[in-house]
Amino acid sequence: MRTIRQDMIEALGRGLRAAGPEKDKMLSFLGSLQNPDGGFRGRSMASDLYYSVFATEPLLTAGQGCDQSALAGYLKTIDTSRLDFIHLCCLIRLMGNLTLLDEATTALLKERLDRFRCEDGFFHHVEPAARGSVYGAFMAMGAYQELNCASGFGRVETFVKSFQNDDGSFGNDVQTSMGTVPATAAAMVMLRQAGCAVHPASAQWLLSCMTDDGGMAVSPVMPVADLLSTSTALHSLRLAGVDVGPIREAALRFVSGCLTEGGGFQAHAFDPAVDSEYTFYGILALGNLGE
Fold it and tell me: Which of 104, 141, 236, 285 is the most exposed place for a label (fewest CB within 10 A)?
């Protein structure tokens, strides 16, 4: 089975092909975000590991627009002891993309990652606690896959299903039991990666979050769809083998409406901000809506 990153890269490739004449503008926008130090900026001018992941993966998938040597140089300047959990996972993913994970580096990064384990053996997206979170576990699973030690990431089904609600949705952690699209999508992907069945109610719940404009809201009680929820829902539905044909046309209208003239995507039509994260999700959505 492909890893979490490999599944996303395959979808990004489909998305870039589906973008047609808009593809070059998307790649040009992402390429323009690379700083002289080799990293990519987000919503400030400073290079950031988090936004660098979202910028580089479409560029590397397309084979253009990214100075890989400069990016590798930037990664080598990072003090791993100062990284929080999310940025450490991003560093690992970037190094996996650039095939920089030699034996010594892998051992160091695994030791750093292990420090963030919660009392239950999993990971929380903010800080170590008694229990991990769905998002934290999702990020950690991807990181351990890159470090080629995913076999040590056990009990996934029991952990993930402890956050499942009666309607099939998943909450992110013990503080937020209400189901959300990102948490449900992440849970579905993790269950698939662990070789576990995904309950049909989870897919139906995701589909229930679709709004009149064709996008997915973060939950059925939210009135406004957003690109992150739409993209992650579509990705998990496709991986689960759900036919998205009946919603394809409406979803494409929503995703296309988030694309700006400059080639970047925004969260929704009312959000003026454009960045690499939402551009990644826009391309990913296109890839999971492809025939």
Answer: 104
Q: Is the dihedral of CA 235, 239, 240, 246 positive or negative?
A: positive
Contacts of 166 (CB under 8 A, 6+ apart): none
**Alpha-carbon distance values, 191 to 44, 158, 187, 223, 286 (Å):** 35, 10, 6, 29, 23
Q: Write the pLDDT tens digit of every residue in 177-222.
A: 799 999 999 999 999 999 998 999 999 999 999 999 999 999 999 9
CATH of the domain at 176: 1.50.10.20
Do 109 and 18 form a contact (C-beta atoms < 8 A)? no
Number of domains in the chain: 1
What dihedral angle (degrees, nearest 10) is formed by the CA atoms of 117, 160, 158, 11? -100
DSSP-assigned letter for residue 44: S
Q: Which structural domain, as residue segments, surrounds residue 112?
A: 4-289
Structure tokens at 279: 């551009």
Query: For residue 173, what pLDDT band results from cuts at 50, 70 and 90?
Result: confident
Global pTM? Answer: 0.96
Query: Which residue, among 231, 280, 285, has the nearest Cα to 53 in the 3D structure?
Result: 280
Average pLDDT over residues 108-126: 93
At residue 114's C-alpha, the angle toward residues 50 and 195, to 5°, is 80
